[in-house]
Amino acid sequence: MMEKRRDHRKTGGGAADWLLRLVKGVFVGTGFILPGVSGGALAAIFGLYERIISFLAHITRDFKKNVLFFIPVAIGMLGGIVLLSYPLEYFLDRYLAPTMWFFIGAIIGTFPALWKEGGKKGRSPRHLVIMAVAFVAGFFLLRFGESAFAGNVPQNFGTWLLGGAIIALGILIPGLSPSNFLLYMGMYGAMVTAFKTLDVSVILPLILGLLICLLALSKLMDALFAKAYAGVFHVILGVVAASTVIIVPLDFNYLSLEGLACIPTCIAGIALGLWMSRLEDRYKPARA
Predict the structure, then answer these.
(1) I want to staple 206 with a disulfide (CB 3.0 to 4.6 A). Which of 9, 164, 224, 251 is the partner?
(2) In whole numbers, what is the pLDDT of the chain averaged over residues?
């Protein structure tokens, strides 16, 4: 019986682990359509980021194993983008603060697991300083983006290539919300419309820019992890914390009925985050 349990854990938990990765993919997918939320940060929070970077940096290494691992993640991401875009738009339009606090709660609930992961190869006071600096730098960089890209950017093949690269950076750099920057540049609405109408003049350069950026920079991120795992991970921790603070709704009446609803939605998000972290720890597959 014990041997079966060990085998079950080693293979990644079977159906339970597959479903867990599917749910994680849904959350990560929302990071690409929800302004203020980073798909890369969510990937880091749910224990996917490092493996994504390693896979992209070494495509041929354990190719079949990695493809099988990421199939439910990819399905979940597509589901998160396609199926949840309309409900998210509905709730964000009508119940912005409670919805955002649900996401904030989910991040809070999973942060302890991310903290544990960051210290698995050691943690020193220097790493705490790195995290603090990353938090401050990330906070001001994200705030700077709001003013730097105010207005419209001309929309052509080159700027859509740039848009694809920005989306890729949202994967490679936890805390960076590509939707935010595309909104600042005045390209977000046009991008959503292009996906709805299958406008290849927009979709093609977006995909091209995405792939070029991913392939060009994933090896760099992988090398940084190999040489300075704790330092890089504490940068991620700081930026994730900064990006979480950034999305807190401030211009809102928290004494209203909707404001009070933020408390249970945040608690629900925390509970979900803690549950997913525990499930992740239980069914975490062994790496090669």
Answers:
(1) 164
(2) 80
